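Hi all, long-time lurker, first post. I run a small reading group and we've been trying to get comfortable going from sequence to structure in the token notation. Rather than ask abstract questions, I figured I'd post a concrete chain and ask someone more experienced to write out its structure so we can walk through it together at our next meeting. Sequence below, copied exactly:
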Amino acid sequence: MSDTMKLTTWNVNSLNVRLPQVLDWLAANPVDVLCLQELKLPDERFPLEAFQEIGYHAHWAGQKTYNGVALISREPGTDVQRNLPNYDDPQQRLLAATYPSPDGPVRVICAYCPNGQSLDSDKYVYKLEWFAALHEWLEKELQQYPRLAILGDYNIAPADQDVYDPAKWVDDVLVSPPERAAFERLLALGLHDAYRLFEQSGSPFTWWDYRRFAFRRDAGLRIDHALLSDALKPRCTACDIDRDPRANEQPSDHAPVTATLSFS
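-- Answer (accepted) --
Happy to help. Here is the structure in token form:
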């Protein structure tokens, strides 16, 4: 068993479109667990064989056209949980599984959190309800799995330093005080924003709109996060954003974020 474990989150914005990019990325970056969001395909169309051919296992929760999450891993996951058990929701947004490490089992959760659309939308109410249910469930998960990582597209920029132009985002989703408070409540459970554990240089953003040349202008937000439990925090040696895939032809609008754990 390796003494290093790499966990990555990547919203691929359609696995059907981006599958070759994901396979190429994994070939160049053989991480231990890749958490994918926005598969946008039903269960029966998940490309399991493509991942098996390069030596990976997979668990997934698909949905036609929208949402969908997957865990792509070197070792098969166990104790798989699909969606929040305490929130009745037809949208496929969460998948959890347990993986071996030298320290013992590591619980990895892949989350595609709701966007919210606008502050006066029913989808915003749904977003806050979903985060409240996530908080309630995670509190119990952390008791059962002290080594826990929850990675995904949170659709929340936690602070103004995670926004290219905070003034332009006032009174908008992704940055509203209730959303940021929901994120802080997750941290208060004993979770840690892996990216902020380190002094970072360069752009912190993980998402850039397809419009108005946002990536070229680096007009982005940091909304994709890796949160680590107290037990995993001292094991984290790096957290990096890979901007290169965002420059691909027909890219996802998100970049992969990788947290590296060292058990040596």
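A couple of things your group might point at:
The helical segments are 15-28, 48-52, 122-144, 177-188, 214-217.
The mean pLDDT is 97.
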